[in-house]
Amino acid sequence: MIFNLIIGALAGYGTRYAEEPLAAFLKDKFEIKQPDMRVLTFVVLMLAAAILIAISGKNGQPFPLVLGGAIGFFHVFLRKVGTEQYTIQKAKMDARKNSSSAPSQSDDSAVKEEPEPQEEPEPQEEPEEAEPVTPKKSNVKKPTQKKPPAKK
């Protein structure tokens, strides 16, 4: 399973590098646009990865192969997002650490700031009360219980 993931990641990573040689090979025979060429290159490399997995005799599970291909293809974007999230979380943790380790001031030396007056929220109109909805009576008759015969 990990073998499929690694092979898929290599195929996805190699898409950018194999795109130009494949385009040069197909340039004379077909007219293919740039985005389509990138997709075609990715498909060709994933097919080659699947053939390699089949030849090696490993369990050819498609999900790890495709997941690895996506990770390899979008590795630049994923790394950028991960780095941004890391810096954001690190800044938050540093801010928490600095606020918790700051020396506390005594009440005598602390300057009290007056809170800004808050505006009262505007009164909202109350919604009109809706008439209660009564359930509709169904046309289905309820079965009546038969009374036992009277004893004489």
TrEMBL record:
Region (Disordered): 92-152
Keywords: Membrane, Transmembrane, Transmembrane helix
Name of this chain's protein: Uncharacterized protein
Record's compositionally biased regions (Basic residues): 138-152
Residue ranges crossing the lipid bilayer per the database entry: 39-57, 63-82
Compositional bias per record (Acidic residues), positions renumbered to this chain: 116-131
Low complexity bias: start-end ranges: 99-108
